[in-house]
Protein 1
Amino acid sequence: MNKLADINNDFLQWYQDIIYAAELVDDSPVRGCYVIRPYGWALWEFIQKYMDERIKQTGHQNAAFPLLIPESFIKREAEHVEGFSPQLAVVTYAGGKELEEKLVVRPTSETTIHHSFARWVKSWRDLPIKINQWASVVRWEMRPRPFLRTSEFFWQEGHTAHETLEQAQEEALLMLNEYVEFIQGQLLIPVIVGKKTESEKFAGADHTFAMEALMPDGRALQMGTSHLLSQNFAKAFNITFQDRQKEIAYPHLTSWGITTRLIGALIMTHGDQKGLILPPAVAPIQVVIIPIYKTSEEMAAVKAQYDFIKTALSGYRIFIDEDDQKTPGAKFYHWELRGVPLRLEIGMRDAQARQVVMVNRLSGNKKNVPFDQLADEVDDQIQLLANDLFVRAQKRQESLLFVGGKLTDFGPIMQDQGGGFITGWCQSPACEQELKKYSAFTRCMLDTHRASSCFHCGKSSVQDVLVAKAY
């Protein structure tokens, strides 16, 4: 059995241990790139399934765009190339010869998709265009950590074009809210929503809206972003249309995305010393059944109940662990490590009494459940576990949030112990730069105005910001 590092004393090592022990990832020959194993990929598939349905229901269509992008495309938008340049992977040689123009391995698809938009948009009648793509991207990562920061990662990226700025703003906020509802409602992770500062926003965007979550070690993790690009990229790629007054105009653009980083977030947010605890909505197995028997007679008696259990739980993803090479105790450990929400144990006596022993992965509580109550009890326990997971995560995040005054006072605490600090800011970039002395950043600007003065210079605060160290 794999022993996990102490989650309270060595959180990052615990995280490294659990992602390998639970067979979520494996190493690859390329630094910063990881193999996502079937159990880990199944988590992404359920995230993808849910969000793909919501994306389509909100009027977007899926498409696929090339992996390789001409280098000249990246250079067209000045802020964009400056922001991504250190992370680019570039192809210079192909087909047995040096390329006339270098090709960039997709770091994000704004440039190539906007090239297509310029071909598709001619009139206001062609708008809006609402496109989504499920793909992988490459951003060369100096300090990789599986799921959290990798050189290649999987995501969805939405790209839209609109007739007016108001429509684009509405779109950016619509998708931001879709993300918030999914992350809080399905992944059960509480988030803090705000707008990125000029230095932290997406390269080339007018505004970036983001969701931040505080992990148990007090570091912030960006959960997803929605960008109001407005007309910067439209002008760079000469996307024009004839408006309703028969004048030539530029559309207003957006882009938005979530990534496999969400898997890392749910591992960190919900896991414990035994391993993963998976939110029921995305758990590949929601209920695992452990048969317990010693003789062939006992085995027959237990197996005779399978059909009833399968029928009663037909609405759930279930798995019956019939591996005769493992003891029941080893199976318990195996599925606790993998975070299955509910475990049902059934032995000879249970079969005769027409009951199972139900174990809740979060609370560890056990109870005998008669067959005729099984469906209702599983429904109740799944809902209870989901509610308890969110409440636990919310209470922890609240315990890690503080009100910060002067940076010289809270900076050393934040650097040593972590935590998120809501503090005032005058919006001066020079003050924002001071955070780096404490390995911290502005995570997002908030709509609140709880602080009266800037965390550094002491001038009047324009708005509150969330400040934290980050992954």
Protein 2
Amino acid sequence: MADKITPRSVDYSQWFIDIVLNAKLADYSPVKGAMVIRPRGYAIWERIQAEFDRQFKATGHQNAYFPMLIPMSFLQKEKDHVEGFKPELAIVTHGGGEELEEPYCVRPTSETIIWYMYKNWIQSYRDLPLLYNQWCSVMRWEKRTRLFLRTSEFLWQEGHTAHETEKEAVEETMRMLGVYKDVAERYLCLPVIAGRKSEAEKFAGAVATYCIEAMMQDRKALQAGTSHFLGQNFGKAFDVQFQSREGRLEYAWATSWGVSTRLIGAIIMTHSDDKGLVLPPTLAPEQAVIVPILKKDSAPAVLAYCEKLLAELKASGIRAILDADDTQSPGWKFAEHEMNGVCLRIEVGPRDMAEGKAMVVRRDTGEKVAYEVAGLPATALGLLDAMQKNLYDKALAFRKENTKRVSDRAELLAFYGKDQGDEAGTATATGGFAEGLWCGDRECEAALKAETKVTIRCLPLEGQDHVEGKCCLCGKPAKHLAVFARNY
């Protein structure tokens, strides 16, 4: 209930953990850095997974599965790749009671083992493209973990495609970025900025990394998905050559792209409140709960009335439940279902039954209205649609309100609560997304990160056509428009 939730204004991090635990989405496991996803949390992941999977298949991709153990020599074939993941690797050195001839790593990502297999499957341009996706878990040995947001083991999908030409691979990279943006905004109600990562922030082994970035309620950024153009790096590392249309041997062009259970953390931190979980109706395990107000003489009739309404709601496609537990008070139930993020609460008492009505409360706004029971399923569907739109609009408005265009270093530092004479900075600074021009210099970018923990989240796809002026960090001629933020 709400008294189990630390208010956001008191401790935002604890608020997030309180919601995850009390809404029974996940729990801590005995394995350091790994979490147990409970049934309600997994139900949300299944809905996210289903929508992405639908779009992957609609764009011609097929699901496959590859081993979780990868020979260490595979990672060493692509220098940038192994260096990028080396600090996070979990290494298996023994199996069956014996030391292994070659250690295996538990997959941090699967480019290497997949491209080893692609060498066997690709001989001609006629074999291309290969458009494969894998649903699995990965292991990255994180030192500081947080449920859903950063765990050593997490669930995700990873797409890996091989192409005949550079143009096709670039188009695939951008197509999948578009799929991520569409699902995030339309289905998860997460407004995102699509852009390219700086060279310092790109994926290890990629030529270019593209991402979608969302703003959380504490005004930090969360990377919600990435799509990588890998060029011919893995094709060359694993000698994946094919005979071209002109009869020449050429290396295959590659992409990879992924989203993970981190999205559940993003949804919580974007939409929820101090009463508990708030979910888009598309994702809610329960879209409506009927809570009968039971009084001794009328209880059987009210229950029968509620059961009939429940059947009608389910018949209309609404995920509805009836809470007929008589061991808890209605007020306790109201708070518990608010905690769990049920979209609509439908209260029915003897008076409501007599008048042919039901009281409906929206989880997102708290609006409470008495509706005629006749036609209530259609009304409920309309309310769920309105809630879906409202959650997106509210999150987009919040991002806009907390985005500032900055022209120089002093303005950027002030936005993040640190003036140029302040060595420590201000822990309570609001910040948000800062938009500013950037010269493209890695040292310029690194100095900002070291000083403020603010990073370049992306170079947004929109707004790069007419970049004129000076870098907001160092004053040199600018090459890019950048979005800055502190991040998870």
Protein 3
Amino acid sequence: MDKQKVSLFSIPVIVAALGYFVDIYDLLLFSIVRKGSLRDLGLDEAAISSSGMDIISHQMLGLLIGGIIWGIMGDKKGRLSVLFGSILLYSAANVMNGFAQNVTQYGWCRFVAGIGLAGELGAGITLVSELLPKEKRGVATSLVAGIGLTGAVVAYFISRSFHWTTCYFIGGGLGLSLLLLRVSVFESGMFKNIRHSNVSKGDFTKFFTNGRRFRKYIFSILIGLPTWYAIGILVSFSDKFAAELHIRGEVDPGKAVMYAYAAISVGDVLIGLVSQVLRSRKKALLIFYGITAAGIVLFFSQRNGTAGAMYACCALVGFGTGFWAIFVTMAAEQFGTNLRATAATTVPNFVRGSLPLLILMFNALQPAQSYLQAGITTGIVAMGIGLIAVLFTEETFGKDLDFVE
């Protein structure tokens, strides 16, 4: 299909947005129902905290492994093969999660779901980036992420109306229903042009055999590091931070996730527009990095504050980290058609997979530092690394994507 005829609200964009909506619903559901579901399985408060970190680490490990699998498949077999295969896997895993009877089963279900969830965003962003003209792709991918991220908000409200097992069944059902819409989506013309060529496709090792390509790949990953520090540590464990800060009133981490993702969805749309106005991905990123840093400072400055103020800080941090779509789009724009899906799929999942390392650092700091100090130190490291990566990453706004590595 002619790129000029593919609009911002075409079927591929809408389906990619709905796919990411289901992806985020399933990805964040555990953070939302963590306390209730683990309490229902018979765990006490101490075990809920430790087992919760273990289970979310299982999910993130699955994302890490799945990112490589689906990325390679996206470049070898096509973007649509990933969109179909990944959704089948994570839908089935979520249905099975509804039957989990203990922490071990719960962890394995989240691991398998993580593998499936890993393929959704990268394949969707790659497809949309290749189908739309370069003047529109930044806004289009921001719309995909902005609409998709509201899945966390829906997950929160569904969790307030249904038992946690039913919430997982609903997630599986939403994914399977989406398959019906996927039938109408067409493959990327860029991929079809190289499908039968002799050029090497989906070779993951190519990111490590060339110095310039390796630097681009590593910087693409490190840019996203602050996002999962903010969501995976600050927001997901906001109740623990609230206790340390002597916040008045109970803080519900599920509600904190809901507020954060509502704000992220707004941020993701706005950063696309900011990038368009400034004609620069990097300048837009730096602005939102500044907002994220301000949100983190306020988060740790609210001693003896209120639960409402804590939720507001989670929303501000979320809004700042609304650079997710632009950062994944930049990863797609950095590389040729034969490696684009591999890059766009592995990069965000390596960022998600970094959460266990951030949690490991956070926990390792606590014997020498307080819970709050460990959180601050981890944040300084994550933000510092991300900022350096942004500064050394090349600008990709308006780049022609019709090339191979």
Protein 4
Amino acid sequence: MTESIETIIIGAGQAGLSLSHYVNQVGMEHLVLEKASQVADAWRNRRWDSFTLVTPNWTFQLPGAVYDGPEPDGFMTRGQIVQRFDRFEQENQFPIQFSTTVAKVEPQDGLHRYRVITNRGTYTARNVIMATGMFQKVKIPPFASQFPENILQIPSDAYKNPQSLPPGAVLVVGSGQSGCQIAEELSEAGRKVFLSTSSAGRISRRYRGKDVVYWMNQIKFFDRTPEMLPSPGDRLKAPPHATGKDGGHDINLRTFRKNGIVLLGHIRGFENGALIFAPDLAENLAQADGFSATLLKLIDEYIFREGLDIPFQPMDAGEDNQPESVITSLKPDVNQIQTIIWACGFTMENIVELPAFDEFGLPISDRGVTRFPGLYFLGMLWMNKFKSGLLMGIDESARYLAETLVQNKTAR
């Protein structure tokens, strides 16, 4: 049996709930389909135990649920974040159907409607909004299947804590936010850690008296558009590494090295019983430092331009005066590597049976509105601004999409 719904929202995370909040206000019939048994599954079940927000609490800006606690400049724990989502759900009574996995979204023949096929039946809808975000499946390279079977391999969103891993050294692949935070935690727990780095940038936690995210917001860093990037592929680059753990502190790869973490270039493959790495560690360190220097310079220019009376702060050059050792291969048995954690980005799971994606696998849209009537995307970075998929930007994105849905309904 097929059920007809005017609007179906796929995903009950920050994007889907924010949009449901707005369409509820105008009385638009809709249903939210969520594969998990509760809202905010990614925050609830795909973060490690000690996870905290990377951006300050004031950036939690869901519609009608803006952070109102006593520590706007603090960093909520995973549990505190989940509590806020639960409260958001309770206060809004969203029309959610849980434990519903969407297998396919396809156009319905001859009509401006879509067929949504799930494990609990088939629906037809005039509007379908893909609100599942872009962080759906951790990238794991094909050569990972060649590694010895005795090595535990897990994606970063399955890591929980150091005690959950087998004894021995750990290789963390990726120096974005998750990779760096996990590597730091494992090192502090006494594990031998190898970190395969990337070109991700770094940011200082505080600069000239403020959290650096405050300054990034002031200089409109989060309002950058895709047209401002050097190339369209840069939309897939990892955000700069940072952490909010223990009140927030700097994360610096060079400090990691001082503290015993072995830094490597990006991973290339597995040959003759050895892990192979590119000789690009020095380049990756330079790119991380360069990002930081450029950002702080922009902040300095903003402070000068606005005439703010704020004491100058010398930039942290990040130098550790250690020679660049080039390690291009490691044998897991020799180095006692028992675990590999993949933290090298995510891919989208495409369930839409339409040519709605570009060469990078990202939706082709104008602020989430595709060229296919009734098909929309929500909750991804760079849909019109960098912040469009962030907690601090989802309200603006969801409100615009809700207004578009209402306008299109009125025009019919």
